[in-house]
Amino acid sequence: MEQISEKVSTIAASKPFPEFKPVADNERIQALDVVRGFALIGIFFMNVEWFNRSFLDFGSGIPASATGIDWLATYFVNFFVAGKFWTIFSLLFGMGFAVMLTRSEESGRAFVKPYIRRIVALGVFGLLHTILLWPGDILYSYAFTAAGLLIVLFGQWKWVVASLFALIGICFIPGMNSFGVVVGGIAFMGLIALFIRNEKIVNFLGKKMPLFSAIATGIALLMTIAAIASWVLPPMKEARNGLTGGSAAFFIMAYLSARFHQPAEARFWRAGALIYSLPFVIGVVFGIIAYQKPVSSVFNSPEAVKLAAEKMVIKNAEEAAEKAAKASGKPIPKKLEVKDDKKVVKTDDQKKIERDADTINRIQENKQKMAKDVAILSKGSYTDVVKHHWDEFLEGPFNAAGQAFAAIALFLMGVWFVRAKIITKAADNLQLFRQIAMFGLPIGWGLSVFASSIAVSHTPGVSGDGWQLTQMLLNLGNLPTCLAYVSIVVLMVHSNSVFSKIKVLAPFGRMALTNYLTQSLVQASFFYGWGLGNFGMGRAQQLGFAIAVICLQVLFSHWWLGRFRYGPMEWVWRAITYWHIPALKIERVALNHQMT
């Protein structure tokens, strides 16, 4: 990928040029706008549930209280919508990055500085969205992913290593533990960059292989040694699964990266597909193993329940003492540290009881948090809700960066779709889209239906119920389903049948940022206690509400873009990106000129 690196270096070193001119209608990729609008529908279907339910309950499946049409609506969204549309959104963000990069290459304009401003603006939008409206925001996470993509295409190894050493210290600052995710992300993006951009071949263990493959092999060997030790040494028993799965993952990466190192142009989609799928493939293996065990619950162990109660009493006493000390201005008492007697060797059963006790307390604490969450959202004032969101955010301000590990895979595939001109010249690639839809939809839906036959919900603390396997299968099926959905929409856009009417979603998609944030504003105002107070609406009614809002947004988008060049938030985003206020209103003189 030396050509890309050379282009990137040229762009980065170029002097700033005037801002990009607004993209003319005939320059827009209509299929992208339609797909973006289609993705917004699925995002709304998924998000509306979490404006009526505590987000802390995310990942538990269909609620036990759901029956009838509400159960069917939840099943439809959980197995055919959830996970499929954030992947489409991620794919589109990668495409948008590549389109902007391609335009800057063709025009000779600077790219890095405008895109950094674009990322920062996106992060600010997401942060405000998270705190002021809804904690399920995805923009804040995408800002980290977009920054990671810059590292993949632009990063130099010296600066990557230097930044890692410089930033590790931040993780030790009180309250900044979650920053470790950012540091890990930088290292992860650096490895991806090594695979995509580095052409160096080295001799390793008597074989010639790409540098990335050699590094992956070395890591795999070290992890294998540690994994073997974990199966031999009892103190390392708890690390067995992680070390075994990690060593297998790096061996697979080493083999595939060497086997499919060429052609260089294909590395984007190959890296994306591997990064996304490999963790879930390994997860399926461990899920099958876990599913073979009998169903059990931590609450069925009297010893664990008793120990959990004892630990909770101690914790409550410490918290009460800490609260009293703060109120009186006295020094906060040190927590009592109970050190295990090293001479006493605990049995596996004793260790299990302790783990189960900790799990019980985590479940109970989460239930209390969910009850508080529901009470504030359904009855609290707007000030109460914002303060609640802020407190939640401070518990892990950089946790959102963790999603970059999954989203970067879709970003890379999106870049490939543009650089290979698959989406920019969609009309010339309809056969490829047909093949993707033909294979992707049956595989993706098949995995979803199969997963739902194992489990549709999960009770915290229960193991052996197949929920882990269900989640891994669902996540594995999200990628082929996402690609199939995109392909079907593209085929509809380019058809000569009634299906081409899907183009009506184009303006809706052109205003994706405005419409996404507006959806949250409408939902918060309608469902939360500070608004109309409809929190807890049935799932089927939620979908009806979503459809009604989407229809109004589609109409509004057509009306707005008939008078203005960009959506309101798109206009703000563009102004920040290019550091220039672009014209917003469409002049009637220009309209008359176009008509003549």
Description:
- Pfam families: DUF418.
- Keywords: Membrane, Transmembrane, Transmembrane helix.
- It is a single chain.
- With 596 residues, this protein is mainly alpha-helical.
- Helix content is 68%, strand content 2%.
- The chain has helices at residues 2-13, 30-47, 68-80, 85-107, 112-132, 139-154, 157-168, 180-197, 211-232, 240-259, 267-291, 302-328, 348-379, 382-394, 404-419, 430-454, 467-493, 506-510, 512-527, 539-561, 568-578, 588-595; strands spanning 201-204, 207-210, 296-297, 462-463.
- Strands 1-2 form a two-stranded antiparallel sheet.
- Helix 2 (30-47) runs antiparallel to helix 17 (467-493) and helix 6 (139-154) crosses helix 15.
- It starts with a helix and ends with a helix.
- Mean pLDDT is 89; it is low at 1-26.
Q: How would you summarize this macromolecular structure in one to three sentences?
A:
With 596 residues, the chain is an all-alpha fold.
